[in-house]
Amino acid sequence: MEEYFLDFDRVLEFKKCKQQEAAGTLSDIVKSEGIYTAVFREQKDKRDWFQWDVELPEYSISNQRCTGRCWIYAAINMIRPSIIQRHQLKNIMLSQNYIAFYDLLEKARYFLEVILETLDEDTDSRLINLKFMHPIQDAGQWFFFQNIIEKYGIVTQDAMPDTMHSQNTSEMIAVLSDLLRETACTIRSKYKQSVGREVLGKIKEERLKTIYEMLSMSLGEPPERFDTNLELINGSIHKERNITPKEFYKKYFHENYNSDYYMLVNFPVENKPYYRKYQVFYLGNVWEAESAFYLNLPMPYLKELIQKQLKDGMPVWFGCDSRVYADRKNGIYSLENFDLQKLGFQRRMLDKADNLQYGLSNLTHAMVIKGFSYDKEGKTEKWLIENSYGEEAGQKGYLSISDQWFDLFVYEVVIHKKFLDPDVLQCYKKESIVLPPWDVLGNLAK
Hints:
Elements: H1 2-6, H2 8-33, H3 35-38, E1 54-55, H4 70-86, H5 96-117, H6 126-133, H7 142-152, H8 164-167, H9 170-192, H10 197-219, E2 226-231, E3 237-243, H11 245-252, E4 261-265, E5 277-280, E6 294-296, H12 299-311, E7 316-320, E8 326-327, E9 332-333, H13 352-357, E10 365-374, E11 380-386, E12 398-402, H14 403-409, E13 410-416, H15 422-425, E14 433-435
Parallel strand pairs: 4-6, 5-14, 9-12
Antiparallel strand pairs: 1-10, 2-3, 4-13, 5-6, 7-10, 7-13, 8-9, 10-11, 11-12
Helix pairs in contact: 5-9, 5-10, 9-10
């Protein structure tokens, strides 16, 4: 053996053979199990990933199934604890389906109102192309939830349970999209024939009636009044009878979600300076609702605000890119999970601005933050996340994400205004910067 290594050429040949052997093994894994399985690096001491210094109470885990309704589930998971604690409830299950119904109805109206406002735009303009590409989606934003509960209230899950289409939305969304495209085509064609706007408005209203009927068949018709039984922590039952969704909302929801909670983002790109507020043109679900604003802030300050809200007992709604570096089986999100360089592939994911501007990353999922932990030096190490993929995902429905992952792939949080510094609150008095619908910030609602 010693003689073999004395020959330098033979040493190089031996190393080359070993490298080829390893590459061949990886190639076989890629062929049979896929790229990410081949480059996966399982974390050691997985139990340590789920030890927390600050942790909010657990409640039942929800499951959005095959839908884009994560934003609704995250919003309900954020506000549910305060309702339970204030009213001494054992638990409360609110209807995501009810919110989704009116969100889709309002989005359909929003789309048609935009069509009526842009009749003089060329069909191949960037704006019209964008609207026709995705006339309606079940994806959404925190302020979409705000708009719906303010206008329509909310009901318990037993008052409007899920249906097949509420749990698998793709077919319904496809039919709705084509229905809206056809309506837009009709409206724009008649406008070219000099048909008056009053007539065009009637076409819109008639089509919205059709869409209401279609949603009712697919999701069930929302109740005007409902009955529900609420179990208290002392074991007794509180009965609500013949209550309207808006009455229920006003009775049980004591926060003003429209004015007390702010959407804060971290977008470290050159054309979006910090401490400025932004709004995206034609981004919304309820046409008459006030335009939503995003305040761009540095990530260290966002983390400070998140921790203040958590220590006050309130979870934090947040939006991130959940696709990247995700060990979904173990519920661990870390930059150490995958090593694409092992296969000779390069992936530039370590600059947040580049990720956003070049499409390497985008906001894809909303969840809630429920805790965090420190390392030995007292720095934030990882974050506890409640997901909406059921108890089988991650650790009984929960995730742990590293602080480094958080820095790169968390883009938006919802924070109560009482935690913001006075000088930051003053930023909301400045004139907002209006961005076009195709701006990267508009992708927050997709």
